[in-house]
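Worked example 3 (structure in, sequence out).
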């Protein structure tokens, strides 16, 4: 791989990511962060914070390079070809910048790899409708943590209701109750409701009733189509379909 080309792509995407985050950074300028800098203005603290800043910058640079290398590996192309494809599509380029910004700040390798595969899939087929799906995917990936992923793995065994107009089959248990998820993975119990609410808000889990109300006060849940795609994205090595 051409190291110079790879570096140019990484730097370009990092600049886009920084520009996207600039407004948020500006919004807090002069706030608590400024006080923190003032408190750290002594020589000893300044040196310590310089080391911390350098370490963070190094991690972000490594993750940026890792992202580009993973995308080119999955697609089987060189870095200069990736650059040409990104520059040829403005929306794809903006999406790549957002993915880069997210990947720089994610410590979990599994999530960074999923982001890289999402970007690779978008580069492979940048049709607007598919980019819409990958936008949802990258938002979901950024907003889930290991407990959410564990929850998704457990509930992936649940059977969702068939999509309309197909009718549910008799004697089939659809979905999984929250208490059953916690029985399978007791470590999720303390935060189970919060985990479920986050997954519901991101559209990764849905009611397995599809609007059909049965007796009782408990509602079974299952992975949504989007959730199943995201879970596959976290696991597979090739470019996933949208």
């Amino acid at each position: 791989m051409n190291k110079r080309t790879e570096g140019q792509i990484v730097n370009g995407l990092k600049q886009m990511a920084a520009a996207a985050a600039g407004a948020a950074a500006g919004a807090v300028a002069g706030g608590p962060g400024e006080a923190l800098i003032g408190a750290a203005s002594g020589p000893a603290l300044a040196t310590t914070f310089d080391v911390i800043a350098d370490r963070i910058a190094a991690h972000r640079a490594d993750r940026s390079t890792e992202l580009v290398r993973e995308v080119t590996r999955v697609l089987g192309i060189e870095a200069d070809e990736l650059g040409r494809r990104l520059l040829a599509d403005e929306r794809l380029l903006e999406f790549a910048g957002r993915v880069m910004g997210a990947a720089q700040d994610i410590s979990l390798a599994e999530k960074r790899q999923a982001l890289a595969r999402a970007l690779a899939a978008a580069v492979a087929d940048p049709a607007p409708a598919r980019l819409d799906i990958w936008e949802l995917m990258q938002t979901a990936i950024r907003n889930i943590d290991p407990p959410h992923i564990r929850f998704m793995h457990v509930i992936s065994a649940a059977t969702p209701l068939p999509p309309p107009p197909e009718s549910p089959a008799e004697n089939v248990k659809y979905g999984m109750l929250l208490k059953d998820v916690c029985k399978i993975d007791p470590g999720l119990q303390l935060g189970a409701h919060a985990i479920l609410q986050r997954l519901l808000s991101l559209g990764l889990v849905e009611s397995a009733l599809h609007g059909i109300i049965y007796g009782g006060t408990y509602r079974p849940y299952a992975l949504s189509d989007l959730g199943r795609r995201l879970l596959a994205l976290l696991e597979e090595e090739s470019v996933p379909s949208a």
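Notes: The longest helix spans residues 43-75. The radius of gyration is 21 Å.
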